[in-house]
Structure formats: structure tokens, C-alpha cells
Design a protein that fits this description.
- By secondary structure, the protein is mainly α.
- It starts with 24 loop residues before the first helix and ends with a helix.
- Helix 2 runs parallel beside helix 4 and helix 3 packs antiparallel against helix 4.
- The radius of gyration is 42 Å and the shape is elongated.
- It contains eleven helices and no strands.
Length: 217
């Protein structure tokens, strides 16, 4: 019995699959987006920054009842600061002037005024302390303590000539100031000055100091 030859099966040729076109990633990445524009950088105005600093320091001084110090800071703002701060500073300056006017008129004695000037000096407000010492000297030329206080202020601020002049006047008005100055550490800046030593430790035959002699030195 003859084997039947298997009929050849005709396979239909497979249809090619349709492939979607894939975008080239390299071509996409090549199109870079432009970076966002940088924000403009504004440079800080040093004048404005200084004015703000003075304004804040002035308000702090007012809170601490240091009206002389606050006045000086506020006057700087009014003189060269921005308008918006200058207007506010002017308002606070009026308050300072009122407080200082009341304080200056409330001193019952020159000694009380002197104590206030010393408090300013102790807080480092030398210009204000100097101004009050000068007022006492004008109101009472024989107030030896005012000349002594002025000598201290001038010594602390490096004004040696003026310090020696005022100290000499203070000793002339009251010789006890000589002994006080010997133990006063506020005069340490002049400790090595021979004129200061001569003023505090005069020779027994030396005449008492005078303001005229102090001017010569």
C-alpha cells in the first residue's frame, strides 16, 4: 500500500507588521529650551542702608531715654538720608528736643546738672556731656567740678591740651581736685605726660597753677 504523499501546505506569506515611527530621542534632546531669564539683582544702596541703621539706633536710644544720642543719629538722617526716613526722623527729633528741654530746665542746682552730664559721659556720649559741662561753666564760672568734669571728658576723647587746661583751672578753684585726680583712673591716658605729673605733684616751692600757665604748656 503506497503512502500518500503529504500534501504540501501553502503558507501564506506573513504580512509585514506596521511599525510606528519612533522619534529619535537624540533629535528631541537637541532642541533645548532656553533657560528662564534671571531676575534682576538690585544692589543695596549704602546710603539708604546707613540711614536705616541710624534710624533703628535712634529709636532704640529713645526707648532707653538717651535723647542726646538719639538726637545726633536722627539729625544725620535728616541731613542726608532718604526723604521717607527723614520725615519720620524729624518727628522723633521734635520729641527728643522736647525731652531735652524739659530735662535742662528741671535741674534745680548745678550739681544736679553735673550729675546728669556725668551720666552721659559714663554711657559714652562724650559730645553731649561736653556740651552740658560747658553750660555749667558759663552759668557758674566758679564751679570747679565742672572744670574737673570737662578735664575728664577731654582726656577720654584724646584732647590732652584741653584736659590739662581744665584740670589746672579745677585745681586753682579747689586744690582738693589735685588729690582726687591722683586716684582717678579716667586720667590714665595722661599718666606718662610730664605736665600731668607736674600738675598733680608740684614741687613745694612751685606757685599754684594758673590757667595762663596751662596755656603756655
Amino acid at each position: 500500500m503506497k503512502k500518500k504523499v503529504a500534501a504540501s501546505v501553502k503558507r501564506s506569506a506573513a504580512k509585514p507588521k506596521k511599525t510606528k515611527a519612533v522619534r529619535n530621542r537624540t533629535s528631541m534632546s537637541s532642541k533645548k529650551t532656553s533657560p528662564p531669564p534671571k531676575k534682576p539683582v538690585f544692589k543695596a544702596d549704602p546710603v539708604f542702608a546707613q540711614a536705616v541703621q541710624n534710624y533703628e539706633a535712634g529709636l532704640k536710644a529713645m526707648q532707653e531715654h538717651k535723647f542726646e544720642k538719639a538726637k545726633g543719629l536722627l539729625e544725620k538722617i535728616i541731613a542726608g538720608g532718604p526723604r521717607e526716613l527723614a520725615d519720620r526722623a524729624r518727628m522723633h527729633l521734635n520729641t527728643c528736643n522736647q525731652q531735652l528741654s524739659e530735662a535742662s530746665s528741671s535741674f534745680k542746682t548745678h550739681e544736679e546738672h553735673f550729675d546728669y552730664a556725668v551720666s552721659l559721659m559714663n554711657s559714652g556720649q562724650y559730645d553731649q556731656a561736653r556740651g552740658h559741662m560747658e553750660k555749667i561753666q558759663k552759668q557758674n564760672p566758679k564751679a570747679d567740678f565742672a572744670y574737673y568734669g570737662m578735664a575728664v571728658v577731654e582726656c577720654l576723647t584724646g584732647q590732652v591740651e584741653s584736659s590739662l587746661k581744665n584740670l589746672s583751672e579745677a585745681i586753682l578753684l579747689n586744690p582738693q581736685n589735685r588729690f582726687q585726680a591722683r586716684n582717678d583712673s579716667d586720667f590714665q591716658n595722661m599718666a606718662d605726660d610730664p605736665r600731668f605729673t607736674e600738675l598733680l605733684y608740684p614741687e613745694p616751692s612751685d606757685p599754684p597753677p594758673s590757667s595762663h600757665e596751662a596755656k603756655k604748656h
